Amino acid sequence: MKTFKYILRDESGKQYTGTYEAVSHSEVIVWARCQGRIPVLIEELDTRKKKSRKKKRNVKHVSLSEMAAFCWQIGTMMGGGVSITESLETISDDIDNEYFEKTLNSISEDIKAGSTFTDALKKHPKVFNTFFRAMSLAGETSGNMPQVFERLADYYVKREKLLKDVKGALSYPCFVAGFVVLIVTVMGLLIIPRFKSMFEMFKNELPAFTEVYMSCYDYISRNIWWMGLIIIALWISGHFYSKTINGHRNLSKLVLRLPFFNNIIINSFITTFCQTTSTLFMSGVSVLETLEIIKAMNSNDIIRESITNIQKRIEEGDNISSAIESTEMFPNLVIKMAQVGEQSGSLSNVFDKTSEQFQRQLEGSIKAMTKMIEPVMMMLVGSLVLVTVIALYLPVFTMSDV
């Protein structure tokens, strides 16, 4: 058991301090919640902790889950009256990401030197992007930093779930394709050569089906390195072509037209658009600045062009619903919900509900794609194995009949 020092706050704002014995930091949080109190600061008293602490991860990025945890912690601590510098230092001691720890300590030092929180964030754009900095500025301007961090934490949790769903959908076909390649490789290296040496010992003429199969195998065996070089050359050429302006735009078009995947990509964009818009609107960020942030978050040229067109229409005096209707990227549901939000004066809440709807649609699209790809891949694997078995065992059956 470890001893933890805690500072808790109840709904009336009254603070409670003391110590509590528990196995972990999380256990203290659960205990505090059961008491109906909000954790402001939880710190292990054991001074040996720093000496025995496991080595921190030395990575050059910060995950969405780490960002969500950071926002929840700093929002809770600042809401309880802890200063921002003390909050940053306490959180940095507790995280296991060395890169993130150094970033938070640097921000704390800059704030002590006289910088605002948002200005300090600008020095670390890889960790705190334009979206985060806009939210921070809105929080500083309104004086509602704890509420802003709470919204950020909720946003990052939703973003992490969205990306996991999309990555899962895109990685499944790759996994199955890799499995097919593995089966073909095993057959080509271990099974077929043994049968080939056995066939060469026979004087009988092989069946036509087996002859064609073995001819294809011989051709691939002789030219496998050339084929590999061609594939690598095509991949490198495609990579450099995608870096050009026309190449990147054509690739963006292609991605949005791919069967099965286009619905996933479009639903993913709409979910992100609605989530980000809702979060920024709740914090008081302007429409044009919100659209600029969303555009910076997206790498697809076609989607970026659509957002640019929306910005132009709004600058000309159109409302949001009319502006997004002018593009072909948004379905009628989003347009109608935007109109409802404008009429009721609650665009942020409407976009939040819309994002949840499209999140469910995205999950449905992923399940549907998986159900369609699974039998196709199984048929492909089964066909490869069946053709190989027939080609290899047909001569054996033919000779046994003789």
From TrEMBL:
Keywords, sorted A to Z: Cell inner membrane, Cell membrane, Membrane, Transmembrane, Transmembrane helix
A Gene Ontology cellular-component term: plasma membrane
Domain Type II secretion system protein GspF: 70-193, 273-395
Protein origin, superkingdom: Bacteria
Gene3D superfamilies reported for this sequence: Type II secretion system (T2SS), domain F
Subcellular location field: Cell inner membrane
Residue intervals passing through the bilayer: 169-192, 224-242, 376-396
Keyword S-adenosyl-L-methionine: no
Pfam families cross-referenced by the UniProt entry: T2SSF
Membrane-protein topology: Multi-pass membrane protein
Family (UniProt): Belongs to the GSP F family.
Protein name stated in the entry: General secretion pathway protein F
Source organism (scientific name): Sedimentisphaera salicampi
Gene that encodes the chain: epsF_1
